[in-house]
Structures are given as C-alpha cells and as structure tokens.
C-alpha cells in the first residue's frame, strides 16, 4: 500500500509569514466598522440604556409553560405536597424577570420616540402583576385548545401527547402569552416571543391577531396568521395556510399600518393545507370548509364548501422501470 507523504504542502507554505499579513488589515476594518456605526441609519444600539434580552425571554417562556402545565416540564416530580412551594417559586422568579424585561422594553421605547420616562419601575411591576393575574384565564383557554386537538386529530392518542409534542399547541401557547402582553401595552417583547415560536415551529402568529377558543393547528409548518386577522371559536387550520394581507402600493405601509389588513375567519371553519386567504374585508362565514391549495381574496358565505375542480391526471409508461425489468 502506498503511504501518503508526511508533508502535503511545502514547508514555506505553512511556516511563512504570509498568513500574518492578513491580521494587519483587521485594525483598519475595525475603524471602518466603527465609522459606519456613527451614521443615523446604522441600526446599532450604543449607549447606557440596555435592551431586552432574547436569552432571558426564552427562559421566561419556558417558565410560563411550566406554570401553565404543572408537572409536564418541571425539573423534578410535582405532587400536592410540594405544588404550592414550587408554584410560589416559579411565579416569583417570573414576576421579577418579567418586570425587568418590561422595564427595559419600555425605556427603549421612550428613548426611541423621545418620550420622557415617568414611574417606569412601578409601571413595569404593575404590568407584570397584571400578566400573572391573566394566566388562569390563559390556562382555561389552552384547555379548550387541547381538547380541540384531541377531537380533531385521530392521530392524537392523549392529552399528554399533545402537550408534550404538538408544535401547533406550542405556537398557540406562545401566541396567547404574547397577545396578553400586547393587550397590556408592552412593547417589543410580544413580537420577540412570537418570532421565537416561529423559529421553533415554523408557525408565524402575530401577537396582534385575535383568536378564539378551541383553536387547532394540525401539523402547522408554514402557517402564517397576520396582525389584524380575526379567528372565531372551534377553527381548524392545516399546514401552509396563510391568513395574510393584499400587497400594498409602494411606500404605503404607514397609511395602512392601523387598518384591518387580514381576513376574518368565523366560528367552526376548517381550512385545509396550503390555502391562502387575503384581505381585511375578506370574511369566511361560519361552518364553511375551504379546501387545499385555494387562493381567496373575496368573502365566503356561511355553510359553504370551496374546493378546486378536480385536476386531470395523466398516466404514462414508466420506461425506466421497463428497462430495469428486461435487464
């Protein structure tokens, strides 16, 4: 067997000083970067005021899940003897962390828009408390979402399976948490939360959307629900569904920023995979069924089924298979 030589490259290629010359260029690159930071449109965040932490935000979201679903995601076994102690510890830690992140987000907003900050610490703690007070109601609504998942998906074997493993429930849980914070007037954090769920599941639900109870997203990947979408009770969506806005004229974003741009889905509607429904005036009536691969920009009356005309299938001889059989 032929042995490889010990040195693949000549010694001067590895031991010379050519590589060191590259390092000499770095100081000039650093100066160029620093110069770019001085521009008004540099999108840098320099100064004494810190901003919310993405890492702390994710920690809080997992803590909220432990509170909403006690025993499922705890670090140790829970029982009735230690439940009150555990919940006291979790809620206290969450209150402190959330208060701090709300404070950072609020101060960031004040600096961004040139508003004076008054009673920021007191307001942030009050808002964090209001959020914690809303958790029992979120738990109640999530219970309805879980029951809808079990009744709507024959593949689901138990509530435990849904809580542990369904990406749709994860995304809905984060949405309901973020939506409450948005209702309480908290800037930045709700959108950061929804984007974490988006990256984790492939489901993009804007925290500004209004979603009723018993909501079920089956499979989920690619689902998009826009900011001003309104969804009723007992609605089911499949993967790839988009509830979006019609394209806007160039430079018209500010004009439409506070208008309803996304559709309304009434109660007990089912929307199948890869369907796109657009427009703020589009309403899908109650109990309607929208088939897969549909593009809708107009309203649908209640109790309506919308499906594509059956496409024509073409069957042709598989020459490769015939050749392999002969061989």
Q: How much helical structure, as a percent, in the residues?
A: 40-55%
Rounded to an integer in angstroms, the radius of gyration calculated over CA atoms is: 27 Å
Cα separation of the termini: 37 Å
CATH architecture of the largest domain: Orthogonal Bundle
Query: Going by CATH, what is the homologous superfamily of the largest domain?
Result: serine acetyltransferase, domain 1
Topology record:
Elements: H1 11-15, H2 18-23, H3 26-37, H4 54-68, H5 83-113, H6 120-133, H7 135-152, H8 159-165, H9 167-183, H10 189-201, E1 204-205, E2 210-211, E3 216-217, E4 224-225, E5 230-231, E6 236-237, E7 242-244, H11 253-256, E8 264-265, E9 270-271, E10 276-278, E11 283-284, E12 289-290, E13 295-296, E14 305-306, H12 319-326
Helix pairs in contact: 4-5, 4-10, 5-6, 7-9, 9-10
Tell me what the structure shows:
With 327 residues, the chain is α/β, with parallel strands linked by helices. It has two domains: 154 residues, serine acetyltransferase, domain 1; 111 residues, Hexapeptide repeat proteins (UDP N-Acetylglucosamine Acyltransferase, domain 1). It has twelve helices and 14 strands. The strands form three sheets. Strands 1-4-7-10-13 form a five-stranded parallel β-sheet. A five-stranded parallel β-sheet has the order 3-6-9-12-14. Strands 2-5-8-11 form a four-stranded parallel β-sheet, with no helix packed on it. It is globular. The relative contact order is 0.06. The mean pLDDT is 89.
Brief overview:
This protein is of the alpha/beta class and 327 residues long.
């Amino acid at each position: 067997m032929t042995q490889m030589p010990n040195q693949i490259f000549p010694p001067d290629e590895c031991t010379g000083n050519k590589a060191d010359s590259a390092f000499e260029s770095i100081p000039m690159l650093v100066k160029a970067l620093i110069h770019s930071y001085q521009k008004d449109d540099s999108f840098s965040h320099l100064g004494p005021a810190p901003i919310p932490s993405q890492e702390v935000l994710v920690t809080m979201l997992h803590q909220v899940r432990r509170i909403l679903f006690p025993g499922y995601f705890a670090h140790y076994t829970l029982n009735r003897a230690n439940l009150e102690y555990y919940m006291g510890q979790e809620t206290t830690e969450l209150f402190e962390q959330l208060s701090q992140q709300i404070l950072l987000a609020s101060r960031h907003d004040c600096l961004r828009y040139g508003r004076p900050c008054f009673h920021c610490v007191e307001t942030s703690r009050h808002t964090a408390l209001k959020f914690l007070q809303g958790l029992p109601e979120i738990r109640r609504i999530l219970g309805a979402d879980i029951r809808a998942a079990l009744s709507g998906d024959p593949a689901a074997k138990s509530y435990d399976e849904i809580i542990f493993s369904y990406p749709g429930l994860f995304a809905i849980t984060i949405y309901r948490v973020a939506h409450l914070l948005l209702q309480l007037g908290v800037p930045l954090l709700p959108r950061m939360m929804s984007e974490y769920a988006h990256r984790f599941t492939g489901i993009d639900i804007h925290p500004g959307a209004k979603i009723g109870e018993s909501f079920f997203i089956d499979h989920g990947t690619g689902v998009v629900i826009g900011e001003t979408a309104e969804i009723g009770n007992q609605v089911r969506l499949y993967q790839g569904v988009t509830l979006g806005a019609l394209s806007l004229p160039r430079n018209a974003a500010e004009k439409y920023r506070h208008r309803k741009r996304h559709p309304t889905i009434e109660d007990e509607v089912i929307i199948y995979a890869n369907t796109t429904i657009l427009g703020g005036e589009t309403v899908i009536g109650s109990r309607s069924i929208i088939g897969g691969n549909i593009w809708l920009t107009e309203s649908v009356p209640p109790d309506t089924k919308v499906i594509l005309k059956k496409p024509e299938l073409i069957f042709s001889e598989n020459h490769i298979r015939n050749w392999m059989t002969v061989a």
